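Hey, I'm writing a tutorial for new members on how sequence and structure tokens pair up, and I'd like a real worked example in the thread rather than a made-up one. If someone can provide the structure for the chain below, I'll link this post from the tutorial.
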Amino acid sequence: MTSLKNDRYLNALLRKPVDMTPVWMMRQAGRYLPEYKATRAEAGDFMSLCRNADLACEVTLQPLRRYALDAAILFSDILTIPDAMGLGLSFGAGEGPKFARPIECQADIDNLPIPDPEQELQYVMNAVRTIRRELKGEVPLIGFSGSPWTLATYMVEGGSSKAFTKIKKMLYAEPHLLHALLDKLAESVILYLNAQIKAGAQAVMVFDTWGGVLAHRDYREFSLRYMHKIVDGLIRENEGRQVPVTLFTKGGGLWLEAIAETGCDAIGLDWTVDIADARRRVGHKVALQGNMDPSVLYADPARIEQEVQQILADFGAGSGHVFNLGHGIHQDVPTESPKVLVDAIHRFSQAYHQ
């Protein structure tokens, strides 16, 4: 077993006893840090930063130097798989992602390759190996992917969307096409995450950013079904340790029981969910991650501490809670605020783990 100086994050995901509630933040390596902006400027653009293992490692480690976080997360992007499929990904200045060749028909889906993680996506694996080496066992490394549904939204819409009309047209008018695309994406994600695990990721997470835009039955058929397939296909033990899997659907509070049935180890919660109610609903089946509104970090330290105490109290005593934001940290929060957050979680949570 690889020795870890701080393994409370992995233990909490597996609902094992911990001395305090662990914490990391979605998008903790990113634009709210001045040192990140400097490194990105050095790289030239976002994807060049992702493709440079040393620079991706540097921005992964930057938040750990400032804050006593309990995990590092690979610096990458959820759109690496569709990019490797040859859809022509670009990020315009001040704009979201765009694909030059969006998916429109059966032929487009048939022509999509399933990327080899150690070929087309080798830069991600190189980053994982570099980060894992440089962490020196201080904290575990989280690998991740976008969910098949979320990746498909970008691939069919051609970029970000507010109404998701193109992919929902496919869903309702040609569901067989969408299932073919989602199936190919699920296969790709399984290969991708397993390669990250082999390269050194000690836990993995699937980000289903847009699952919450689906109708109730459609979520189960077009999103959860494929995340379940991924969970079934993942390596669950490596280096003598269990490799926990977390599923996060933004807007997914309706489906917590169904998500827990996939066999995942933890469910990520956004801030619209009452964590006490979530714990009652899933029982001892899975751990929970979340779920502070990222905008609380705009508040003064006393208000941040108040929110931390409330969420900890709502979850209650015992293990199985990883404190996190309900989504990614905003780029203009004061850099002092995450320190207030992390220190408060560690200080106030000890009473719940006696």
